[in-house]
Amino acid sequence: MKIRIIGIDPGTYCTGYSILEFNNLNKLNRKIFFISSGCIKSNSKIFSLRLNKIYRSILNILFIFKPFVLAIEKTFLFNNLNSSFKLNQVNAVITLAAVRNFIPIYEYNINKIKNSIFKRTNINKKYINLFFKDFFNINKDIDLNITDSIAVAMCHIFLNY
């Protein structure tokens, strides 16, 4: 059975997403395939318009790729409460889009993500970016938000299948 996962790195100006797929029948010869990725970007000064763009874009991505599950990076509390509040709203509209499509949602904090893939937490974003470019044989530059979304999806695969 092929399982398709969308990994999401929520952001207020750039929300990264990645679609990964793997065959769950043969655990000895399991391969993970990179299907697609992108960033949902908005520079609107009006935050509600950014939220609407993220929501509508996620709905569209879910419709096109029909993932089996959604894995999202858990938001954490910043020193700036306003930033934390906005990031939680982004997380909420993504969650709403998944719920409306009956897609299960799994949240993972950054340390769990790094530990599940690299067995340690003190890894920087540039290393993770290079690792996934090599792992999936991607020749073009990848936005760090996309790299984070790949890591979230990989974490879900490693912890659940």
Describe this structure in words.
The chain has 5 helices and 5 strands. With 161 residues, it is α/β, with parallel strands linked by helices. It has a single domain, classed as Nucleotidyltransferase, domain 5, CATH 3.30.420. Strands 3-2-1-4-5 form a 5-stranded mixed sheet. Helix 3 (110-118) crosses helix 5 (144-160). The radius of gyration is 15 Å and the shape is globular.
CATH homologous superfamily annotation: Ribonuclease H-like superfamily/Ribonuclease H
Determine the oligomeric state from the structure.
single chain
- Count of domain modules: 1
* Main β-sheet, spatial strand arrangement: 3-2-1-4-5
How many β-strands, per DSSP? 5
- Number of helical elements: 5
The topology string of helices and strands comes to EEEHEHEHHH
Give the low-confidence spans: none
CATH architecture: 2-Layer Sandwich
Distance between the termini: 12 Å
Secondary-structure-based class equals alpha/beta
| Rg over alpha carbons | 15 Å
Sheet of most strands = 5 strands, mixed
Q: Give average pLDDT, whole number.
A: 93
CATH fold descriptor? Nucleotidyltransferase, domain 5
Question: Which bin fits the share of residues in helices?
Answer: 40-55%
Strand content: 15-25%
Backbone shape: globular
The CATH first-level class comes to: Alpha Beta
